[in-house]
Each structure stands twice: as C-alpha cells, then as structure tokens.
Design goal:
With 140 residues, this protein is of the alpha+beta class. It folds into two domains: 35 residues, Arc Repressor Mutant, subunit A; 82 residues, Alpha-Beta Plaits (2-Layer Sandwich), CATH 3.30.70.920. It is 33% helix and 21% strand. The protein contains five helices and four strands, in the order H-H-H-E-H-E-E-H-E. Strand 2 and strand 3 form a beta hairpin. Helix 2 crosses helix 3.
Length: 140
C-alpha cells in the first residue's frame, strides 16, 4: 500500500483496495494504523521558489551512530527543515532547510547547534537562492 501511495499520494482507498486485493475498509484501517504509528507520513511539497522561502540550505552532518535516530527525529520536526535523512558515508545525516534570507541560515545554525554541537558536527553546508541563474551552454 505504501508503495502505491509513494507513486501517487492522492490515490483513494478504493483504488488501492483494487490494487492490493483487499476491502476498502481494510485498506483504510491499515493506512490509518501505519500513519498513527509514524511508519507512514503523507506530505505535499511545494515549489521552493513560490513558497516565500527562496533559499535552500543543505547540511552534511556527522552524528555518532548511537545518537542519529534521536537527532534526526528532533531535527526533522523543526519548521525550516524540509528533509532529514540518515545515510552511509563520512556524513551520515543530510538535512535540507528552507529559509527566507541568508541571515536566517546563521540564526538556524546557532539556535539548533548545527555548527558547534558535539553530537551534530556539520561537515559541509551549501546554500542556493532559487533566483540564481546559470548561463546556458554557449552563452557568455
């Protein structure tokens, strides 16, 4: 069911019930149970350029493995954070935040200790305004 919702989060329980060969009531109950347990979250993304938050910031962080679940859960609940996910590699937590201006980048980092916390060490950061234009190939 989750795979079908990942393809199209607007699918109705009736449509999913046909796809998985279960009753519509069963599909509704199971989806509700998955959502209540936190195993399934549905969300709708908006275009950052139209959101009022034109700057996207990516953080590549290193967190001790015994703290990554708690840190990821806490950081993922912060309003500016659009994505927070654990990965393999030298940076084992990737965070994407949206802010309105560059001053909010420093404020976000200071308030949430992204640059100086022992448990969450930011190994790299990239900020990109949505109005940044790249020249086309062949243009000067």
């Amino acid at each position: 069911m989750a795979a079908y919702l990942a393809e199209d989060g607007r699918r109705s329980s009736a449509e999913i019930s046909e796809l998985v060969d279960l009753s519509e009531a069963t599909v509704r109950r199971r989806i509700s149970r998955l959502q209540s347990s936190g195993q399934l979250t549905l969300r709708c993304d908006v275009a950052r350029e139209s959101s009022g938050y034109p700057i996207g910031v990516w953080y590549l962080c290193r967190i001790p493995s015994d703290k990554i679940t708690a840190a990821g859960t806490a950081l993922g609940k912060l309003a500016p954070v659009r994505m927070c996910t654990a990965v393999d590699g030298s940076a084992n937590l990737i965070i994407q935040a949206w802010v309105q201006n560059l001053e909010q980048v420093s404020a976000f980092e200071s308030k949430h200790s992204l640059t100086h916390c022992q448990a969450c060490r930011s190994t790299d950061r990239r900020a990109r305004p949505s109005n940044l234009k790249y020249p086309r190939v062949g243009q000067n």
